[in-house]
Amino acid sequence: MGRILAIDYGRKRSGVAVSDCLQITANGLDTIATHLLLDYIINYVVVENVEEIVIGKPKQMNYEDSENFKRIEIFVGTLKKRLPDIPIIYVDERFTSVLAQRTMLDAGLKKKDRQNKALVDKISATIILQSYLESKDLQL
Which H or E run includes 80? Predict the structure, then answer.
């Protein structure tokens, strides 16, 4: 079984998370400057067996796509061209930043650490991936 890679795509930086080989748990991997993200993913896929890529799909409260989704679609189009054999799946990412902040608070991180946006992005990617893994379990 291959790993599943998750992306919380942002304008300036993007959080990346990855599953274990059994696709049970999600772990934060890194936060990458978005302009370097494509190369980072390509290099990661060369080293690790990645079965799927999930990417957060930002939606507004009325279920319409957010403004950032246009950038994500362009990125995903390029990613599909570079990695045509790896399925790319969109996952609803509403509330992931709020959940990431709550996770850091529950973990006892100090205020300064909770203001680290790179850490929030990585945790958000982890939450996106964990929700996807759990939804796959429900389908079985």
Answer: helix 69-82
User: What token pair was written down for 56?
Assistant: 């957060």
Domain that holds residue 63: 3-139
Q: What is the pTM of this model?
A: 0.84
Residue 65 sits in a domain whose CATH number is 3.30.420.140
Return left, alpha or beta for 108; rule: phi > 0 is left, psi -120 to 50 is alpha, else beta. left
Cα dist from 138 to 3, 43, 96, whole Å = 19, 32, 20
**Exposed/middle/buried for residue 46 (C-beta within 10 Å: 0-12, 13-18, 19+):** exposed
Q: Which two tokens stand for residue 1?
A: 């079984």
> Are 17 and 26 contacting, i.e. CB atoms less than 8 angstroms apart?
yes
For residue 108, with 0-12 CB atoms within 10 Å meaning exposed, 13-18 middle and 19 or more buried, which class applies?
Answer: exposed
The domain tally of the chain equals 1
Render pLDDT for 33-88 as a digit per residue (tens, 0 to 9).
Answer: 999 999 999 999 999 999 999 999 876 666 676 677 889 999 999 999 999 999 99
